[in-house]
User: Fold this.
Amino acid sequence: MIAESAAVFLQEKSTSAQVRKVSEAEGGMDRALWQKAMELGWSGVALPEAAGGMGLGLRELVLLQERMGYHLACIPFFDAVVALTPLWRALSKTEKGLPVVERLAQSGQVCVLGMTVRGELPKAATVKVEGDALILNGQWSQVGSGTHADVFLLPATLPCGSLGLLEVSARADGLKVNALQTVDATRSSANVSAINVKLSGDAVLIFGDALKQLWAETRNFAAIGLAAEQVGVAERALDLAVEYTKERQQFGKAVGSFQGVKHRAAQMLVKVETARSAVYAAAFIADNQDESSDLSYFAAQARTDATEAALFSTRESIQLHGGVGFTWEFDPHLYFRRAQASSQRMGTVEQWREQIAARLLDEPEEQVAEAA
Assistant:
């Protein structure tokens, strides 16, 4: 029901014409669509019931993310909802953190994490104490959806030497947000810098080992969520190719009736369904893992399979559209751009494979078997 309702809603509100309008004239964010998505309760799907959410999990977010990718929805759902879910869940368990979640998570504000492109924890920023205030200085590069953020959650080294996550208003004095030109115009990115930004002590949301553990969980969680979006991108690229090859005539027949074209479409379908299976499995593991489970292996498989499916399918879609495949008037290039841009976020395929290979080679065989 979640997937079906999202498909119907986005089919109407995130049309090709609307996506092009927003990406060309509105900086890549459809504010009206974002507000409507909030009214539909999408931001609270995976939030605990104690924080006013539905208490569901990553499986339900994955279904929404697929539709987001399929329709190239110009809203920061991945950065402001999916990637933040582990943080909101962790804060909801504490007396101090619960009001923060209630204030930010479903307020309609765009809150984004100051993470690296690979999803790692930045460590260059610093905080010092002046009287009763905290003074923040530092830089965070290529922050996803940073151009449209209302609130930043920025990691920095605290005076005690440990890393902390700080809530910083996008309108704070001394905070600068420089928009970046992106390959995918349906998404925004920005370099964020802080010069003597004054904050209160309450700005620190979580710190120390708890933050490091949370960040590792967030990277895996977000990687699976992004993989789901890539499945949607790949599926739409396939559908566009099939629709076009059914219409295009050559030698008095539809191009789609030729065996060579059928084989290429079949390869795309196999990629899409393989990636979808990996993503669904990873989401299921994420929702049912215990403390001994290691989500990184499943996140890596979902991330690599989905990235390869999106890249392969969008390229093939352009080829199967023939001479018009790369033109601005046709849609395949929009999905190709999203696939290319997303392939660099949360770590590339090569980086995920290197990470897993290192663990398989370095860790004792028994430990790897238990984690799997």
Residues 28 and 186 are 4 Å apart (CA to CA). The chain has 13 helices and ten strands. The beta strands are 111-113, 126-130, 133-144, 151-157, 163-169, 175-179, 189-199, 204-207, 249-250, 253-254.
